[in-house]
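Quick question, first post here. What does this chain look like in 3D?
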Amino acid sequence: MKLMSFEHGGKASFGAVVGDGVIDLFPLLEGRFADLKSLLAGDGVAAARTAIEGRTPGLKLADLTFLPVIPNPGKIWCAGLNYGEHVRETGREVSEMPVFFLRFPDSQVGHGQAIPRPPESIKLDFEGEIAVVIGKGGRRISEADAWDHIAGYACYNDGSVRDWQMHTGQWAPGKNFWRTGGFGPWMVTADEIPAGAVLSLVTRLNGAEVQRATTEMMLHSIPRQIAYASTVAPLQPGDVFVTGTPGGVGAKRTPPLWMKPGDVVEVEVERVGVLRNTIVDEQVG
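> Answer (accepted):
Ran it through. Tokens below.
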């Protein structure tokens, strides 16, 4: 099942994607769940699956504004330096433990929405990644149990303002400019992707492939990331893991390849779909 968050007629909602249409789950489930995050807690996914059986979509994808898959996550754990090629191109060393930084919810946009390049920098870079959405919370989750805590998978573009990222040893400023991270177009529920399945990840800029990798190339697996982060703080339904980008980022090319207004960036995850965003200059004032 594909689940998404969207806006239609000025109202935010969430639904199940069926073909080129969407079944709006908020009214169908009689308002039991306020949003997709609350649906993931308890029996919401099972209730949604039952509710859509035999139903025809009442909305068309083309008529909707895509929101980030989870517009209001409590935590967004982003893994850095998690592919060997990316570690090498940055000149760093492989870390024994996962490297994490956090993103803010308002640093995200949905599929089809514009990613604004801030006036403070032209060094806006792409980072195609696989996002994991938590469905079952917990603390100190073991790697063996981690797959049971995943609600689904999505595409992510961890858009990075590189000079601001490198102002100090702390990366947060360059990773949290407003609306620079693409998250979408939807999440595919975990029952459709077997635990441990090898997934490919491809990033394209203006149709040209700039990144390619598979999950088996990760230095720290998805279960290891979940186990590590849940030791720090309890995970909650709707929390998001952005699991790392492979080599090929624009900052490490010669010459550097920065995203600029008019560019189209796509992140494709096997068995999930394609996240697509355009780049614009942020309008100030």
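The chain has two domains: 2-66, 76-281.
Helices lie at 25-28, 36-40, 44-52, 84-90, 162-165, 172-175, 222-232.
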